[in-house]
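User: Can you write out an input/output pair for a complex, sequences first and structure second?

Assistant: Here is one pair. Inputs:
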Amino acid sequence: MAKTDKVLVIGGGVGGLAVAIGLHQRGLQVEVVERSTDWKVYHVGIIVQANFVRALNMLGIGDQAVKAGYAYRGARFCAMDGSVLEELPGDTAVDGLPSDLGLTRPALHQVLTAKVRELGIAVRLGVTFERFHDDGDGVDVAFTDGSCGRYDLVIGADGNYSAVRKALWPEKKPRYTGQGVWRYNVPRPAGLDWSDIYIGKSGGKAGYCPLTETDMYIFAVFEEPGNPRFAPETLADEMKKRLEGYGGILGEAARAIVDPALVVYRPLEACIMPAPWYQGRVVLIGDAAHSATPHLGQGAAMAIEDAVVLAEEMSDRPAGAALDAFMERRFERARLVGTSSIQLGEWEMRPETAGDPIELTDRIRKKLAEPV
Ligand SMILES: Cc1cc2nc3c(=O)[nH]c(=O)nc-3n(C[C@H](O)[C@H](O)[C@H](O)COP(=O)(O)OP(=O)(O)OC[C@H]3O[C@@H](n4cnc5c(N)ncnc54)[C@H](O)[C@@H]3O)c2cc1C
């Protein structure tokens, strides 16, 4: 089998852009198709840790990500009144760069798209695949704009509701985990340099994470029986209800939740694929392969680690051998993050079965500091 030269990436999100950058840097010819026409991402923030910074640094954009975000000291677990129960300080994985970072989704998108543009990688917006056929030597793809192409490898980086996954594994679908997450950006109190997680309330947890010099975001993850839909005008009141009973910085900051249009609510749906995440010359990465809940703040890092490892394994070798090596390095790590994230949510919903969330979080953070 010949080595891989020409690659199609379906999905221009976190993992898709990262893998396009990594493969281009290793000399492969990469094209990206992205379904959305405006390529915008919603305004809230994400929490990331040392392995995210390290993976982006391997793509040459660690510095830019750090500058686009806000570095803080680590995670603290707090009681409902805000008193600190335990500090889990971040451990840097790259000399000179911090570990724990909060950044807005648009800021991360800007860092990735700027690099893609700088490298001149072809991105077609408002386009996706209509069908593909893998004949063993290559994949013929027909696109929704009427064009077609032939590729040595197709990467499905099209997120939690992946159409590529559906085409190859129609029985694998995201499952509602029983919880939903509420998010809202508020002013950051001066001097707040930790992301705090308040535990002890039945059904979930809440907290905040610094995003910039001036802003942080509040998150509240709670059991939402029956996976309800909420009327848009009720979202601020609904979020505030979930934050009732909290004291400390969280209780104070929650007063700023006033505009229902700025509340971002998402039911949590997860889909962790068994190995392998590929069939022939079509492979899934990121959420398409292993979407989890945000309890460990690892979704973006896992997608970027997938991208870095796939790019490393893909250089100068045939697709089959590269994909086996990719799975060997990625499956257990992504599975551990996914199942542990879901476990934390289960414990929140069923406290009678609960283990120790602080110990589990600390153990996974340390594990992920190890090289990919
Ligand atoms: C509520 C919530 C909170 C989260 N918080 C965090 C956090 O704090 N920290 C963290 O690290 N992660 C967090 N995550 C997870 C993180 O957002 C994802 O894991 C990460 O974005 C995965 O990257 P991805 O590239 O796989 O998917 P995405 O970033 O979702 O990108 C998929 C891309 O594919 C495009 N697309 C979709 N379908 C098609 C198609 N058929 N054809 C072409 N393009 C398509 C989409 O438009 C999108 O651009 C959170 C997720 C949720 C839902």
